[in-house]
Amino acid sequence: MKPAEFGYHRPCEVSEAVALLAGLGDGARVLGGGQSLAPELNARRITPEHLVDITGIRSLRGARRVAGGVRYGAATTHRMVEDGLVPDAGGGLLARAAAGIGHRAVRTRGTLGGSLAYADPAAEWPAVFAALDATVEVCGARGDRSLPARELPRGAFHSGLAPDEIVVAVEVRSLPQGRWWGLHKTAGTAGAYASSLAVVLFDTDARGRLEQVALWLGAARETPVRLPATELLLTGRSAAGLDVAAVLPGVAQDLGTVGAAPDDAARHGLRVHAATVCRALARAAPVGRAAAGEGAGAP
Ligand SMILES: Cc1cc2nc3c(=O)[nH]c(=O)nc-3n(C[C@H](O)[C@H](O)[C@H](O)COP(=O)(O)OP(=O)(O)OC[C@H]3O[C@@H](n4cnc5c(N)ncnc54)[C@H](O)[C@@H]3O)c2cc1C
Questions:
Q1: What pLDDT, in 10s, does the model give residues 193-213?
Q2: Which residues line ligand 1 (CB under 6 A)?
Q3: Domain 180-286 CATH (choose: 3.40.50.300, 3.30.9.10, 3.30.390.50, 3.80.10.10)
């Protein structure tokens, strides 16, 4: 199918885009890389009267270093991150995440801002930016605002952005040297969305035991979730040799199924998430030591 007719606008400035969205009202949609929007248009699941294409706004593309971190323009593509064309504030984590998104063609056009705004529960960026405690910058007709990336998704495919608001950037504090990161995506086939996505950050003590663990899971709930019980369970343990049985009680507690007599499907889901966490830990890499995309092995 082809999309229904729409007006096409390609502003050069954020202020122009915001004014257009405010003026056009509810019938207008922002167009980023089009990798999620275009299929919906083609299937006529949505029929906006106007599209405001923000990919011509140069200030939204690429990244720059800021005090203590990196500010990524919303129209920065997954491919730019994957290929190292922008600095990696996650010490390799961002490049690893980007490389796992869809296929190369999707990564060439899809953008960070589009992924955050789309708020797919199984997407990489919402979970990764939540784990990194990133800040999202938003511009709208009623002013600009910044909010923690973990607060942007309000539900499945619901970002809480007003119709005239645009994600303009995401700012990430650089992970310090010595901190470890791990990411694992469990998916049916290469290029598919995650059925589970674990992002873990941690320090290690002199004996290689985990400290200061931050663990986030995507594709488990409507929005990315933090796993505090599993973080506690992992603290003081060595990542090497951790198996599903060891991690499962924490994951079950965090996902709220302790004592709830889960059925077979729920039990299987928990095991998949626990296995995904184990793999993220097993492939974790320290900032500054690992090549992007390759873990250095468990500490
Ligand atoms: C085959 C296929 C496989 C995929 N696999 C994965 C995957 O494994 N993991 C994954 O994370 N993603 C995956 N995606 C989605 C991909 O990452 C998209 O790039 C992303 O979801 C949306 O980004 P976009 O720039 O293409 O946004 P668009 O498709 O242009 O827009 C998506 C939504 O966000 C809004 N929007 C876009 N930009 C902004 C902005 N800056 N501010 C406010 N609103 C905005 C649009 O109005 C629309 O509602 C896949 C897509 C395809 C087609």
A1: 999 999 999 999 999 999 999
A2: 29-37, 54, 74, 101-102, 106, 110-111, 113-115, 117-118, 120, 123-124, 161, 166-167, 193
A3: 3.30.390.50
